[in-house]
Predict the structure.
Amino acid sequence: MKTSRKSKIQIGLLLLPGLLVFGIFTIYPILKLFIMSFFEWDFGSMLSHRFIGLENYKEVLGDEYFRTVFINSLVYTLVTVPGQMLAGFLVALLLNQITRFKVGYRVLYYLPVITSWVVASLIFKYVFNTEGLLNYFLMNIVHITSANVRWLDTRWGGMTVAMLLGIWKGIGWNMVVFLAALQTVPTDLYEAAAIDGATAWDKMWNVTIPSIRGTILFALVMLTIGGFNVFTSIKMITGGEPGHQTDVILTWMYHKAFSTGKFGYAAALSFITTVVLAILAVIQFKLMQQKDQ
Amino acid sequence: MMKVKKNKKLLAILLTTVMSLAALTGCGESPVESETGSESQVSATAEAPAATESASQEEVTINFWHHYSAQSAENETLMNVLIPEFEKENPGIKVNAVSHEWADLHQKILISAQSNTLPDVARLDSAWVPEFEKMGILTALDEEMSDFNDVSGGLLESAMSTAKVDGHFYGLALNTNTKILFYNVQAFKDAGIEAPKTMDEFVDAAKKLAGTNANGQQVWGYDEPALAGWNLCPFIWSMGGSITNEEETKASGYINSPETVKAIETLAELYQAGAITGWNAGDIPMTDGFGTGRYMMLLEGPWKVAEMQGSYPDFEYATTEMPAGDAGSISVLGGEDIAMFNSANKDAAWKFMKFMTSEFAEEEMAKCGQIPVNKEALESDTVKAADYAPFLEAIKTAKSRPTVACWSEMDSELSVAVTDVMNGKKTAQEAMDKLAERFDELLAE
């Protein structure tokens, strides 16, 4: 069917508000960022920017801090994404089975998701402080340790606390997503599998997982992006200490742009992150498609 | 019938579009703008100011950004005493004061400089002045204001030096401060020692006071809440070291000199002996640690007096000067300057700056713990009655941190390097040698 001119105008007008918002708040900043990343854009040159080609990119990639923060972000993503997906999936499986208090449990598991990141981070910091709740519990109540453990004061100690927070906070979202997916799996598939003599394990691998693959992919992509975008928890819990050892990509970018005024560096760093994320998303899609065939 | 329906649809679409556009323009207006700002500002911020100008012809509003905490006595004085008095003395000028957090203010100014929405006047941490000067957003007061010398002559020279970059003045000193040693009187009595006068005594005291208290909790002899220049400079300078040469052009041979390295080593040894702490993410906050007897000594500024009064009014502490090393007792000079931006309404802004540094305003602020820089205010009864004497004494020998544009970055690198030394990853010599190279690069830029 041919689209008449009139309805073309209509479609255009309908799309216009959305496109405008998308263009002004998404496309324009990305383009501007891309342009900024080729300029010397910092104190002293804020009013007249000098084109320096790939210098910012060279500086980022040659920077030892960049390696540290990139590895931190990568580890954070590699740990928290499978962690919260697995935990969320297990909770969803359990909640899918029970018949009583369904709503109550769902609310309980979802509560961390609606808690503010700042509040949750401060509570985690309070628990894991050198003078915090956990050390008090270990030392004075169960008497396992004889001195306070400095949980937050090393690179991997601080990162672990932030990752625990990430997983704890992510379980609820994964639960909701997987629960919705589980409820779409037709029950006759399970009945047919039961007739063929499938065990619960077989059903899980051959019926449940293949049926919700789309949801798994969706969660994987969203959470990977989320993992690389972690900011609040790190900023609040360790603030990047000791000596930027626990900084992640975003907290480092923030530090470079707004504490030292290196906007060009920060723009190049953002752009590199965007490219890495895009590549990761493509790989994830490809992997899931291969399984399909 | 059909046609009517279609037209209605079109109308609905158009309405949606218009409404969303209207919503978008709402976002475009910046929250703070100079209502009679310079041309660049007016053109950048659309037509809003025009309405105000025509309504009251003579009236100008100047925006003043500061980092007096919103709940503080300083802010009360500013809003309820100083600004009303200024507006009474200068009819036709209104002051719109906005309070920011210290770190936010720095970022806000960076961002506003990008979008041409700077205020007229701001109270700046004196360490920021060189940075903003290099950005080209501050007004050189000695060039543009004919009565500059009369005004600056009434203010302390040491404090005014923080506003001087490359031979020109980009602000007026507003208030000054420095750090002195606060100590827990009871703990010193119990240990049978006197307040430390020299660096050796300080090291001994820190070690002696550390350990465990009656409740089995760990206590530390001294607390340092961070490892930046503000924290390290008093130790480096007092022990004869320095960050850069006098001209602030070179760091090799200064930041890695034997004296500087010795200062860092001294602190690292104390940390490894469990005698000092405070900069780790998991440590007890400074005021609480001091007030509850977990940290026995601090180096802090005049605001600590009010903080302790508020949080731990019954806690018994005393103060003494920064322990003297080979080079004497040299603390770090803090304080704020008041400066105007190039986009300001300069006449009104200058009037306000002169008012804020006047004897009256400085004396009012002195009542809330701000040490004045106005020479007449320093002689006033308020200042004499206040317990500033130890700070005023320390200011005579205190030095300011390097006034270079790349100081923020140097400061950040310094704390990373010293953190590595503290954690035993590098020796002080290694870390400082590497830092010297980096500083030289930054200073050469």
